[in-house]
Amino acid sequence: MRSEARSDVVTRFAPSPTGYLHIGGARTALFNWLFARGRGGKFLLRIEDTDRERSTPAATEAILKGLTWLGLDWDGDVVSQFERKDRHAEVAHEMLARGTAYKCFSTAAEIEAFREAEKARGVSYPVFLSPWRDADPSSHPDAPYVIRMKAPRTGETVIDDQVQGRVVIKNETLDDMIVLRSDGTPTYMLAVVVDDHDMGVTHVIRGDDHLNNAARQQMVYDAMGWTVPVWAHIPLIHGPDGKKLSKRHGATGLEEYQAMGYPASGMRNYLTRLGWAHGDMEIFTSEEAMRVFTLEGIGRAPARLDFKKLENTCGHHIAMTEDAALLHELEGYLAAAGQPGLTVQQRTRLVPAMAALKERAKTFPELLEKAQFALAERPIVPDEKAAASLDTVSRGILKSLTPRLQNASWTKDTLETILNEIAAENGIGFGKLAAPLRAALAGRSVTPSVFDMMLAIGRDETIARLSDAAA
């Protein structure tokens, strides 16, 4: 197997802009990014937009947006495969000149007749043998033709894959594939190789659904005398039931995960571990992952999507993220989910509340639910359970509390001392006092600690809410 230890590492992600960025594609991009970044190499982005009917600018924008949200930066400009079609055709004609390709004038009807005859002889998967492969150019008719590559007819093609191991393909099963159509447009198989070569790609890391393509693409490298890149074909992602991931399993598009409220760092961590392992390492930063990521760590079996594990991973990352950065990403989530943004006042209250909130939330919707006290505007209307704690006695206690808070030092220790004194003066435990406080400050019976809420919303808002409830 080829060594992956190269100082000039160049990887690429080459999606087709025919729809959203699939989560499997996002993981492929992530593996390429980690591998290149961890070795001081380059990570390039190419949009394979040769299917003009299905490729759309909106899909391209969605791909770029998804990669940006996931935090995967690329080097240089985004390459359009379609815009390089003349270069692809140039290589096809160079193969003609080298004698590694030939003009084929066989018609669609002739090819179909050949295949039907082979099937009649009991050949299940007939390989078309063009009569023009070794024809004298002087016998060429003045008719439309395609350019076919001369594939070896005997022996084996070996793919030394960093993930799948040594893959051997019988050459007799490979036909002389078309590299340039009769209308002068290149085929995908040719375009991919030319682009990867011209972009200096050293490692092709992609889904194992491309493994069969590698044998044919390797022949193009050989035909042109180019260096074959290191191959690494990674297994696809399956749903929890072990079947190929689809809509029935839940979200499959990367943008859906942002709109569902998963933090990008947690998503990166989870996708990195989805089919790759390094000892018992579970929670890590991208910098840590770059240092230890290797192709050998990728398993051969399909990985299974596990939403519970995703949530747990994201919970760790929410807790690890600095408050200001978390607030910024939270606003990104609100925009992606089509929800109203935060007001200046809400931002001001959320930052000091983060420390109390982020340890208990696994997603941004959970964090916002727990942060409701900081987002709410007066008057606070308690729900039914919270309202039950605001009886005449508790309202009187709240009324006696507000003067004590007017000039108090606004620290947790001071607030704790004052509230415990009030509870003792009224012959109740702190728990009995906490219930009406929660109702007054948040309108709910389950909230962060009353001290955390008071510190987050500040003295004036705390006293105003207590006064409202005491009235």
From TrEMBL:
Residue ranges annotated for the Aminoacyl-tRNA synthetase class I anticodon-binding domain, each copy included: 342-469
Motif ('HIGH' region): 15-25
Family annotation (CDD domains): GluRS_core (cd00808)
Binding locations of ATP: K247
HAMAP family per UniProt: Glu_tRNA_synth_type1
InterPro entries for the chain: aa-tRNA-synth_I_cd-bd (IPR045462), aa-tRNA-synth_I_codon-bd_sub2 (IPR020751), aa-tRNA-synth_I_CS (IPR001412), aa_tRNA-synth_I_cd-bd_sf (IPR008925), Glu-tRNA-ligase_bac/mito (IPR004527), Glu/Gln-tRNA-synth (IPR000924), Glu/Gln-tRNA-synth_Ib_cat-dom (IPR020058), GluQ/Sye (IPR049940)
Gene3D superfamilies: 1.10.10.350, HUPs
BP-aspect Gene Ontology terms: glutamyl-tRNA aminoacylation
Membership in a protein family: Belongs to the class-I aminoacyl-tRNA synthetase family. Glutamate--tRNA ligase type 1 subfamily.
Organism superkingdom: Bacteria
Transmembrane segments: none
Subcellular localization, as worded in the UniProt entry: Cytoplasm
Subunit structure: Monomer.
Name of the molecule in the record: Glutamate--tRNA ligase
Organism: Fuscovulum blasticum DSM 2131
Catalysed reactions, semicolon-separated: tRNA(Glu) + L-glutamate + ATP = L-glutamyl-tRNA(Glu) + AMP + diphosphate
The Glutamyl/glutaminyl-tRNA synthetase class Ib catalytic domain, residue ranges: 9-311
